[in-house]
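Researcher: Next entry in the queue.
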Amino acid sequence: MRRAELFGIPRVRPWSWQAFLLGFASVAVSAAIQGICVALGAKLYFAAFVPSIFIVGILAGAPAAVFAALLTIPLVWWAFMPPFFEISPLTSADADSINLFFLLAVLLIGLADLCRATRSIVRRGGFGPPGKSAA
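Model: Structure for this entry, 135 residues:
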C-alpha cells in the first residue's frame, strides 16, 4: 500500500547556494512586508521576519536560517529603527528587541531543525528496522 505524503513541501540541501539564496530572498520579502507595516504605523521591528526564519529553517535547514537571522538584525537596525536608514547607537529598548529576536530565532531554528529530522524519520518509515513499516 502506498503511504500518503505527510509533508508536501520541497526541501533544499542545507549548505547549498540555493538554501542561502532562499534565506536572502525571504529576508528581502519580509523587509518589504515590514516596510508596509511600518508605513501603516506598526512599531514591531521584527514582526515580519520571525515567520520567515522558521520557514527558511524548515525548507532549507539551520545554516540558511542562521544566515537569514544574522542578515535580519543589521537590516532592521539600519532600515526600521529610528532614525531610519542610519546606523545609530541603540537605545535600551532597541537592544532588548534585538536580544528577544535573537532568542526567538534560536528557538525557531531549533524547532525547524527538529521538524526536518521528524520529516526524514517519517519518510524512512519510523524508528523500526529497515524494511519493516510501522503501519
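Model: The helical segments are 17-39, 49-60, 62-79, 92-124.
Researcher: Noted, moving on.
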